Amino acid sequence: MVNTPDQDLLETLEATAQRLLDRHLSATKEWFPHTLVPWTQAEDYEPDYEWEPNDAAIPPAVRSALFVNVLTEDNLPYYFRDIERMFGRDGAWGEWVRRWTAEEGRHGMVINTYLQATRAIDPVELERARMIQVQTGAVPEPPTMAEGLAYVSLQELATRISHFNTGSMLTDEVGKKIMRRVASDENHHFLFYRDALTAVMEIDPSSAVIAMEKQTTDFAMPGVGIPGFSGHAKAIADAGIYDLAIHHDQILQPVIMRDWALESIEGLNAEAEESRARLVKYIGRVGKVGRRLAARREEKAAQLEPAPA
Ligand SMILES: [Fe+2]
Ligand SMILES: [Fe+2]
Q1: 41 FRET partner, CA 20 to 30 A, in 134, 141, 216, 289?
Q2: For residue 133, what pLDDT is reported?
């Protein structure tokens, strides 16, 4: 757990934080949840209302993804706690923390309202799950700033992909637009954290590489504490919304191997050299297993398809 912000590193990177914050503010556009929610589809809920899957025609895996994605957004208080602990309240870092929090607040707001208006998910089940999850308050708590930056980089990009792919599988154009809007925010968050870790790498490459290794090998999609999480995660993977192959091809490979150029980082100490070797191997293995699982799933799907007449 990060007990106190790493003051020295924060101060050294103050100008970087300011630059990344300014870039973020000029790249993002203001948007309003109320303009996206399809209010005309909404109706009052009768007091004895009992939800049925037919209330909204959505494949179960997409429903699982919406459920997990919105609950992850609802866990914002604990992600805020992590981020504030890590970056503190002062200067550009503090400003980033508050701006990020304000933006994240919109995500839960717009997705929740969409789900309630369209009856896509049982509102009672969802609210009970939200209560359980927020009362559990479990989120990863990286122990150092470098590890924290490695974790949130991977996490923001994972959320971006998950929201985007969930939206792509909705036939409802409004839902698609909402999920893409949120995904675009997550992408901007990812860019801030990715480039902040790049700046750490320039000062202390060994700590950055050790942090990458720890957070990559420990990485789990957000969702611990969500009731029925493993079943939902399996459905989400089976539907190709987020699986190991995507994790490798769209996160580990482009971010760690390409953007952070893991294999060409110079000036590492012995511990970090070992860390790098393990991480390269690990990423290769994730790619292999991911491809194998995806192929197996395709085979299974082909077997289930009716034979041509
Ligand atoms: Fe979010
Ligand atoms: Fe985000």
Answers
A1: 134
A2: 93
Structure tokens at 136: 């559990």
Question: What is the pTM for the complete model shown?
Answer: 0.95
Q: Tens digits of per-residue pLDDT, 284-296?
A: 999 999 999 999 9
Q: In which domain, by residue range, is 196 found? A: 7-44+52-299
**Is the residue at 146 inside a domain?**
yes
Please identify which residue in the block is written with the tokens 């009672």.
124
Q: How many domains does the chain have?
A: 1
- Answer yes or no: is 281 within a domain: yes
Q: For residue 40, how far is its CA from the centre of ligand 1 (angstroms)?
A: 25
Structural domain contains residue 305:
no
Mean pLDDT across 37-46:
96
**CA 104–ligand 1 middle distance (angstroms):** 5
**pLDDT tens figures, 190-217:** 999 999 999 999 999 999 999 999 999 9
| Domain contains 235 | yes
Q: Classify the C-alpha dihedral 168-173-175-180 as positive or negative.
A: positive
Distance 295 CA to ligand 1 centre (A): 31
Which stretches of the chain are DSSP H helices? 7-12, 14-27, 33-36, 60-74, 76-87, 91-118, 123-136, 145-168, 173-203, 205-217, 229-238, 244-246, 270-304
CATH of the domain at 67: 1.10.620.20
Q: Which ligand is nearest to the CA of 188?
A: 2
Distance 187 CA to ligand 2 centre (A): 7
Distance CA 284, CA 248 (A): 8
